[in-house]
Give the backbone structure.
Amino acid sequence: MVSVVVPTHNRRPLLEETLGTIFRQRGVDVEIIVVDDGSSDDTSTFVASMADGRLKLIRHDVALGVSAARNAGLEAATQPWVAFIDDDDLWAPDKLVTQIEAMRSNEGACWSCSAAVIVNHRMRPIRYQPPMPRRDLGDILLARNVIPGGASGVVLDTALARRVGGFDVRLSVFADWDFWIRLGLASPIAAVARCLHAYRVHPAGMSNRDGVRSELSVIDDKYAPERAERGVALNGPAIEVWIGDRHQRAGRRLRAASSYLHSVPRISRATAIRKTAEVLLWPGLYRVRDMVNGRRVPASVREEVTRWLPTPGTGAVEQDDRCSP
Protein backbone atom coordinates (compact mmCIF):
# COMPACT_ATOMS: atom_id res chain seq x y z
CA MET A 1 0.00 0.00 0.00
CA VAL A 2 1.92 3.02 -1.30
CA SER A 3 0.96 6.66 -1.74
CA VAL A 4 2.75 8.08 -4.78
CA VAL A 5 3.05 11.88 -4.83
CA VAL A 6 3.52 13.52 -8.24
CA PRO A 7 4.10 17.30 -8.24
CA THR A 8 3.61 18.83 -11.68
CA HIS A 9 3.60 22.18 -13.43
CA ASN A 10 2.88 22.69 -17.15
CA ARG A 11 4.28 19.35 -18.29
CA ARG A 12 1.20 17.42 -19.32
CA PRO A 13 2.87 15.32 -22.09
CA LEU A 14 5.73 14.31 -19.78
CA LEU A 15 3.32 13.71 -16.90
CA GLU A 16 1.40 11.27 -19.08
CA GLU A 17 4.52 9.12 -19.52
CA THR A 18 5.34 9.34 -15.81
CA LEU A 19 1.83 8.25 -14.79
CA GLY A 20 2.12 5.32 -17.16
CA THR A 21 5.09 3.96 -15.22
CA ILE A 22 3.18 4.34 -11.93
CA PHE A 23 0.10 2.52 -13.23
CA ARG A 24 2.36 -0.34 -14.35
CA GLN A 25 3.76 -0.98 -10.84
CA ARG A 26 3.54 -4.65 -9.90
CA GLY A 27 3.06 -6.25 -6.48
CA VAL A 28 1.73 -3.12 -4.74
CA ASP A 29 -1.52 -1.21 -4.42
CA VAL A 30 -0.95 2.45 -5.26
CA GLU A 31 -2.72 5.65 -4.32
CA ILE A 32 -1.57 8.28 -6.84
CA ILE A 33 -1.73 11.90 -5.69
CA VAL A 34 -1.09 14.39 -8.50
CA VAL A 35 -0.48 17.90 -7.22
CA ASP A 36 -1.02 20.41 -10.02
CA ASP A 37 1.02 23.38 -8.86
CA GLY A 38 -0.61 26.24 -10.74
CA SER A 39 -0.37 24.83 -14.27
CA SER A 40 -1.73 27.00 -17.09
CA ASP A 41 -2.06 24.08 -19.51
CA ASP A 42 -4.67 21.30 -19.44
CA THR A 43 -2.95 19.23 -16.73
CA SER A 44 -5.85 19.25 -14.25
CA THR A 45 -8.42 18.52 -16.95
CA PHE A 46 -6.34 15.61 -18.23
CA VAL A 47 -5.88 14.07 -14.77
CA ALA A 48 -9.55 14.53 -13.84
CA SER A 49 -10.62 12.84 -17.08
CA MET A 50 -8.81 9.61 -16.24
CA ALA A 51 -11.61 8.49 -13.86
CA ASP A 52 -9.42 6.03 -11.94
CA GLY A 53 -10.27 5.30 -8.32
CA ARG A 54 -6.59 5.22 -7.38
CA LEU A 55 -5.96 8.71 -8.71
CA LYS A 56 -6.42 11.87 -6.63
CA LEU A 57 -5.95 15.44 -7.85
CA ILE A 58 -4.90 18.42 -5.74
CA ARG A 59 -4.92 21.76 -7.52
CA HIS A 60 -2.98 24.89 -6.51
CA ASP A 61 -4.46 27.84 -8.37
CA VAL A 62 -1.17 29.71 -7.87
CA ALA A 63 2.19 27.95 -8.13
CA LEU A 64 3.66 27.49 -4.64
CA GLY A 65 6.79 25.59 -5.62
CA VAL A 66 7.82 21.95 -5.72
CA SER A 67 8.35 21.63 -1.97
CA ALA A 68 4.88 22.93 -1.15
CA ALA A 69 3.43 20.62 -3.81
CA ARG A 70 5.19 17.57 -2.38
CA ASN A 71 4.11 18.54 1.14
CA ALA A 72 0.48 18.82 0.00
CA GLY A 73 0.71 15.32 -1.41
CA LEU A 74 2.38 14.01 1.74
CA GLU A 75 -0.37 15.52 3.88
CA ALA A 76 -3.02 13.82 1.74
CA ALA A 77 -1.27 10.42 1.76
CA THR A 78 -3.25 7.65 3.48
CA GLN A 79 -0.93 4.66 2.98
CA PRO A 80 1.92 3.40 5.22
CA TRP A 81 4.55 3.90 2.51
CA VAL A 82 5.08 7.01 0.41
CA ALA A 83 7.12 7.66 -2.72
CA PHE A 84 7.72 10.83 -4.71
CA ILE A 85 8.25 11.02 -8.45
CA ASP A 86 8.85 14.16 -10.48
CA ASP A 87 6.61 14.67 -13.49
CA ASP A 88 9.38 13.91 -15.98
CA ASP A 89 10.94 10.80 -14.41
CA LEU A 90 10.22 7.11 -15.01
CA TRP A 91 10.08 3.91 -12.95
CA ALA A 92 10.74 0.23 -13.53
CA PRO A 93 7.57 -1.88 -13.03
CA ASP A 94 8.87 -3.51 -9.84
CA LYS A 95 10.49 -0.42 -8.31
CA LEU A 96 8.16 0.08 -5.34
CA VAL A 97 7.82 -3.55 -4.30
CA THR A 98 11.58 -4.14 -4.58
CA GLN A 99 12.44 -1.20 -2.33
CA ILE A 100 9.75 -2.07 0.23
CA GLU A 101 11.09 -5.62 0.40
CA ALA A 102 14.59 -4.19 0.89
CA MET A 103 13.43 -2.17 3.90
CA ARG A 104 11.58 -5.12 5.40
CA SER A 105 14.71 -7.27 5.18
CA ASN A 106 17.00 -4.52 6.50
CA GLU A 107 16.30 -4.09 10.20
CA GLY A 108 15.69 -0.49 11.27
CA ALA A 109 15.75 0.94 7.72
CA CYS A 110 12.73 3.18 7.13
CA TRP A 111 13.73 4.56 3.74
CA SER A 112 15.24 3.15 0.56
CA CYS A 113 16.93 4.29 -2.64
CA SER A 114 18.00 2.47 -5.78
CA ALA A 115 20.48 2.87 -8.59
CA ALA A 116 19.42 5.31 -11.31
CA VAL A 117 20.07 5.83 -14.98
CA ILE A 118 20.24 9.38 -16.31
CA VAL A 119 18.60 9.69 -19.73
CA ASN A 120 18.32 12.51 -22.25
CA HIS A 121 15.18 13.63 -24.06
CA ARG A 122 15.55 10.73 -26.49
CA MET A 123 15.56 8.16 -23.64
CA ARG A 124 19.21 7.40 -24.28
CA PRO A 125 21.21 6.55 -21.14
CA ILE A 126 23.95 9.11 -20.57
CA ARG A 127 25.05 8.16 -17.06
CA TYR A 128 24.67 5.47 -14.42
CA GLN A 129 24.43 6.28 -10.72
CA PRO A 130 24.79 3.37 -8.26
CA PRO A 131 23.82 3.88 -4.62
CA MET A 132 26.35 3.88 -1.82
CA PRO A 133 26.39 0.41 -0.19
CA ARG A 134 26.03 1.76 3.34
CA ARG A 135 23.25 1.85 5.93
CA ASP A 136 24.31 5.05 7.67
CA LEU A 137 24.54 8.04 5.32
CA GLY A 138 24.09 10.84 7.86
CA ASP A 139 27.63 12.26 7.74
CA ILE A 140 28.01 11.80 3.98
CA LEU A 141 24.72 13.56 3.24
CA LEU A 142 25.73 16.49 5.43
CA ALA A 143 28.68 16.96 3.06
CA ARG A 144 27.01 16.28 -0.32
CA ASN A 145 24.04 14.59 -1.99
CA VAL A 146 24.76 10.92 -2.75
CA ILE A 147 21.21 9.68 -3.38
CA PRO A 148 20.95 8.67 -7.07
CA GLY A 149 18.46 10.29 -9.40
CA GLY A 150 16.76 12.94 -7.28
CA ALA A 151 13.47 12.66 -5.41
CA SER A 152 12.09 9.97 -7.71
CA GLY A 153 14.41 7.29 -6.34
CA VAL A 154 13.27 7.12 -2.72
CA VAL A 155 10.51 5.13 -0.99
CA LEU A 156 9.98 5.62 2.73
CA ASP A 157 7.79 5.17 5.75
CA THR A 158 5.03 7.80 5.63
CA ALA A 159 5.23 8.45 9.38
CA LEU A 160 8.99 9.09 9.10
CA ALA A 161 8.47 11.53 6.22
CA ARG A 162 6.06 13.52 8.37
CA ARG A 163 8.17 13.26 11.50
CA VAL A 164 11.23 14.86 9.87
CA GLY A 165 9.06 17.73 8.59
CA GLY A 166 8.60 17.05 4.88
CA PHE A 167 10.22 19.38 2.36
CA ASP A 168 11.57 22.84 3.15
CA VAL A 169 9.44 25.34 1.18
CA ARG A 170 12.41 27.72 0.91
CA LEU A 171 14.10 25.22 -1.42
CA SER A 172 13.42 23.79 -4.87
CA VAL A 173 16.71 22.75 -6.52
CA PHE A 174 18.11 21.33 -3.27
CA ALA A 175 14.78 20.39 -1.65
CA ASP A 176 15.35 16.66 -2.03
CA TRP A 177 18.93 16.78 -0.71
CA ASP A 178 17.74 18.72 2.34
CA PHE A 179 15.07 16.07 2.94
CA TRP A 180 17.63 13.25 2.56
CA ILE A 181 19.88 14.86 5.16
CA ARG A 182 17.11 14.73 7.77
CA LEU A 183 16.17 11.18 6.78
CA GLY A 184 19.82 10.09 6.96
CA LEU A 185 20.15 11.51 10.46
CA ALA A 186 16.93 9.78 11.56
CA SER A 187 17.16 6.30 10.04
CA PRO A 188 19.43 3.80 8.26
CA ILE A 189 18.78 3.38 4.54
CA ALA A 190 18.20 0.21 2.53
CA ALA A 191 19.99 0.63 -0.80
CA VAL A 192 18.98 -1.42 -3.85
CA ALA A 193 21.78 -2.01 -6.35
CA ARG A 194 19.41 -2.55 -9.29
CA CYS A 195 18.59 0.36 -11.60
CA LEU A 196 14.91 1.00 -10.89
CA HIS A 197 14.32 4.52 -12.13
CA ALA A 198 15.30 6.94 -14.85
CA TYR A 199 16.06 10.60 -14.22
CA ARG A 200 15.41 12.67 -17.31
CA VAL A 201 17.77 15.58 -18.08
CA HIS A 202 16.44 18.40 -20.25
CA PRO A 203 16.85 22.22 -20.38
CA ALA A 204 13.48 22.86 -18.72
CA GLY A 205 14.29 20.61 -15.78
CA MET A 206 13.85 21.80 -12.21
CA SER A 207 17.57 21.55 -11.50
CA ASN A 208 18.29 24.30 -14.04
CA ARG A 209 16.46 27.04 -12.16
CA ASP A 210 18.01 30.17 -10.73
CA GLY A 211 18.83 30.66 -7.06
CA VAL A 212 21.05 27.64 -6.57
CA ARG A 213 23.67 29.59 -4.63
CA SER A 214 21.13 31.11 -2.27
CA GLU A 215 19.65 27.66 -1.69
CA LEU A 216 23.13 26.29 -1.02
CA SER A 217 23.54 28.98 1.64
CA VAL A 218 20.30 27.83 3.27
CA ILE A 219 21.61 24.26 3.40
CA ASP A 220 24.97 25.43 4.74
CA ASP A 221 23.46 27.54 7.53
CA LYS A 222 20.69 25.08 8.41
CA TYR A 223 23.03 22.21 9.24
CA ALA A 224 26.10 24.12 10.43
CA PRO A 225 25.65 23.05 14.09
CA GLU A 226 25.20 19.39 13.09
CA ARG A 227 28.28 19.50 10.87
CA ALA A 228 30.34 21.12 13.61
CA GLU A 229 29.27 18.48 16.11
CA ARG A 230 30.11 15.63 13.74
CA GLY A 231 33.26 17.19 12.27
CA VAL A 232 31.85 17.22 8.72
CA ALA A 233 32.56 19.92 6.12
CA LEU A 234 30.25 20.87 3.26
CA ASN A 235 31.80 19.64 0.00
CA GLY A 236 31.31 22.91 -1.85
CA PRO A 237 33.63 22.18 -4.81
CA ALA A 238 31.77 18.95 -5.68
CA ILE A 239 28.47 20.82 -5.59
CA GLU A 240 29.92 23.55 -7.84
CA VAL A 241 30.70 20.93 -10.51
CA TRP A 242 27.05 19.84 -10.43
CA ILE A 243 25.81 23.44 -10.57
CA GLY A 244 28.14 24.20 -13.48
CA ASP A 245 26.83 21.25 -15.44
CA ARG A 246 23.20 22.32 -14.93
CA HIS A 247 23.95 25.91 -15.98
CA GLN A 248 25.82 24.67 -19.04
CA ARG A 249 22.87 22.50 -20.11
CA ALA A 250 20.53 25.48 -19.69
CA GLY A 251 22.77 27.70 -21.86
CA ARG A 252 23.93 29.97 -19.03
CA ARG A 253 27.57 30.17 -20.04
CA LEU A 254 28.82 32.80 -17.57
CA ARG A 255 27.18 31.13 -14.58
CA ALA A 256 28.53 27.75 -15.64
CA ALA A 257 32.03 29.21 -16.03
CA SER A 258 31.83 30.74 -12.54
CA SER A 259 30.81 27.40 -11.01
CA TYR A 260 33.60 25.51 -12.76
CA LEU A 261 36.17 27.99 -11.51
CA HIS A 262 34.82 27.52 -7.97
CA SER A 263 35.05 23.73 -8.30
CA VAL A 264 38.77 23.55 -7.45
CA PRO A 265 39.95 21.41 -5.59
CA ARG A 266 37.18 18.93 -6.50
CA ILE A 267 38.73 18.93 -9.95
CA SER A 268 42.24 20.11 -10.74
CA ARG A 269 42.92 23.73 -11.61
CA ALA A 270 43.81 22.68 -15.17
CA THR A 271 40.51 20.79 -15.53
CA ALA A 272 38.56 23.73 -14.13
CA ILE A 273 40.19 26.08 -16.64
CA ARG A 274 39.52 23.63 -19.46
CA LYS A 275 35.85 23.27 -18.54
CA THR A 276 35.52 27.05 -18.22
CA ALA A 277 36.99 27.55 -21.69
CA GLU A 278 34.72 24.80 -23.02
CA VAL A 279 31.55 26.36 -21.71
CA LEU A 280 32.49 29.79 -23.08
CA LEU A 281 33.68 28.64 -26.50
CA TRP A 282 31.79 25.39 -27.13
CA PRO A 283 28.92 25.11 -24.62
CA GLY A 284 27.28 22.22 -26.45
CA LEU A 285 30.27 19.92 -25.96
CA TYR A 286 28.43 18.28 -23.05
CA ARG A 287 26.44 16.34 -25.66
CA VAL A 288 29.63 14.62 -26.78
CA ARG A 289 30.49 13.93 -23.15
CA ASP A 290 27.02 12.46 -22.62
CA MET A 291 27.55 10.14 -25.56
CA VAL A 292 30.90 8.96 -24.18
CA ASN A 293 29.50 8.47 -20.67
CA GLY A 294 26.49 6.68 -22.12
CA ARG A 295 28.80 4.06 -23.64
CA ARG A 296 30.19 3.45 -20.14
CA VAL A 297 26.79 2.48 -18.73
CA PRO A 298 27.12 -1.24 -17.89
CA ALA A 299 25.59 -3.49 -20.52
CA SER A 300 23.48 -5.26 -17.89
CA VAL A 301 21.98 -1.93 -16.81
CA ARG A 302 21.31 -0.85 -20.37
CA GLU A 303 19.63 -4.17 -21.14
CA GLU A 304 17.39 -3.98 -18.06
CA VAL A 305 16.23 -0.39 -18.47
CA THR A 306 15.57 -0.86 -22.18
CA ARG A 307 12.82 -3.29 -21.21
CA TRP A 308 10.81 -0.64 -19.32
CA LEU A 309 11.80 2.75 -20.73
CA PRO A 310 8.97 4.09 -22.96
CA THR A 311 9.44 5.09 -26.56
CA PRO A 312 10.24 8.84 -26.63
CA GLY A 313 7.19 11.02 -26.99
CA THR A 314 4.58 8.29 -26.90
CA GLY A 315 2.88 9.82 -23.87
CA ALA A 316 0.82 6.68 -23.44
CA VAL A 317 -0.73 5.91 -20.08
CA GLU A 318 -1.30 2.18 -19.77
CA GLN A 319 -3.81 1.28 -17.07
CA ASP A 320 -4.51 -2.28 -15.96
CA ASP A 321 -7.78 -4.05 -15.31
CA ARG A 322 -8.11 -2.60 -11.80
CA CYS A 323 -9.10 0.79 -13.21
CA SER A 324 -12.40 2.16 -12.02
CA PRO A 325 -15.18 2.40 -14.63
Summary: The longest strand covers residues 189-200.
